[in-house]
Amino acid sequence: MSKRNDASLQKITAAGGSYVEKTKGQVKTKKHDLQYRVLFDKSPLPMLIYELSSYRILDVNEMAVLHYGYSKAEFLNMTIHDYRPQKDVEEVNKILNGLIDKNRAYQFGVYEHLKKNNTTINVEVSGYAITYDDKECMMVVFNDITEKEISLKKIKDNEQKLLDSQQQLSLIYNNVKDVIFVISIEADGKFKFLSVNQAFTDITGIQESDVIGKYIDYIIPEPSLTLAVSKYKQAISSKEKITWTETTPYPTGTKIGEVTVTPIFDQYNNCVQLVGSVHDITELKKEERQLRLLESVITNTNDSVIIMEAEPFDEQGPRIIYVNNAFTKMTGYTAAEVLGKSPRILQGPSSDWAELARLNEAIRNWLSCEITIINYKKSGEQFWINTSITPIANEKGRFTHWIAIERDVTEQKLAEQKLNSSYKERNEILESIGDGFFAMDKNWVVNYWNKRAEIILEKPREEVIGRDLRDIYPDIPGRATYEHYKKAFKEKTVQSFETLSPAVNRWFDVMVYPSENGLSVYFKDITERLLHSKAIEQQNEKLRTVAWMQSHLTRPHVANLLGLMNVLKNEELTEAEKGEVLNHLLTAVNKLDAIILEIVENAEEIKYK
């Protein structure tokens, strides 16, 4: 055996717990070989030898055959890659190719191996470089640590579970909404706080550091303190948990709590601790008071209240489970007569079936809806009812009920019908009058435009209704008409004026009447009247001109006539002189007659122009 092989065997022997002194004799070598075979073959751990250059297995021990399930013949036809997962082959090659010193032991680490039945095991691999059959080889020892790792993993998992459990308990303890506290029972019978959770501080406003180690007398005020002590003692004596309700003032305000304490006993049956919890029911009590108030409101309201099941829904509609007193007064039906029935008991021939169909569609889609229809009382009397129905959901968002609020609107409906009749009559009047008419609200939006307005202003109502008058006539803010409208709005005074509309080039006589809702505007076309008046005025002006001009022509002749008449009165005139005066008088009269005829002709010309 070579020196290297002998050295390796010395290492193996040493690892086995014995030492064989190296000699040079043949007897000694055979002794070493025998010891090597015994150590190799009888090792309690699987071992094999493989050639470093080819990775071919050259020898295996009995434990390897037993543990892996391969026969020795099968092993000797394998390489070390054949019992490994394919994913580890490349990594193993890199490690073995990197071996430099082959004359020492190696700790390769933990690898996955495959048994013959394809079971995967985790193996801790150690190796020793040796010379075997004059070949450079590696003898490896396999330590199956699968069960060990499983056990370690279980231990770690259990430790983690314990840690998680502790953390969860801590989280629960400090994040639960209820107050949790632990109280110790001192030798003198007094009670001292050992622990409180975060909820205690959140609800009471008292810090944990101000509570731990303090007697309850310093924390719980009267009268809650006396009540708490009596309940603690009751729990201890009865050896059972005790629950009660108490109202206690704290820095955060007065709280109402449902308190439970459980006594904890030691092995000697002595109560050593009390574990307690407080469920804050302050808001619950407030809600209960609000519910009682709401119930009182529902019971005493003048509006009818109906509560119905959400399902099942059929053609008859939801079934009634509650009605208030107002329902009985309004319909004449008692609660007993309608419970379990559908609201359709109130409907009849004059009910609006289109509105009811809309209501049913809303109910099928879980939508709120409001309708106004005719219903029937138990007596058969009709009445108008306004119904508003809303789905009610539980805390999980599932709809469980319908609530309907109903109001008798008969008087209102009759008033509306009367008003509509008045509107209809008014509209008929406005449509029949010869004046144009339109109305607008306080925002200048036109809400009425009669037929005459369409004709006069050449604007169909479809283009006007619902629009701002200033948008319809953009030039109006710059005109006097706009100022009259503004004055009517501001001073609430009637405005009367005449105006020319550039849009249609017509003159209008306008009357504007203000009201609480806006302006009512009446207007009539006065264009023809104004043109006629203007023509008369122009004719009169011409007549005045003619009269003025002709008066200047006639006055000299009239003066001449008057002078000649005065001459004739002179008695001293001779006949010859009188004849001459008469000739002058005749001449003057003829001239005056000619002027008068001219005046008549001029007047006739003016008349027919």
TrEMBL record:
Transmembrane segments: none annotated. Residues 367-421 form the PAC domain. It comes from the Bacteria. GO terms for biological process: regulation of DNA-templated transcription. Pfam families: PAS, PAS_9. Residues 32-103, 165-239, 290-342, 422-475 form the PAS domain. PANTHER family: BIOFILM ARCHITECTURE MAINTENANCE PROTEIN MBAA, DIGUANYLATE CYCLASE DGCP. NCBIfam families: sensory_box. This is PAS domain S-box-containing protein. The lineage of its organism: Bacteria, Pseudomonadati, Bacteroidota, Sphingobacteriia, Sphingobacteriales.
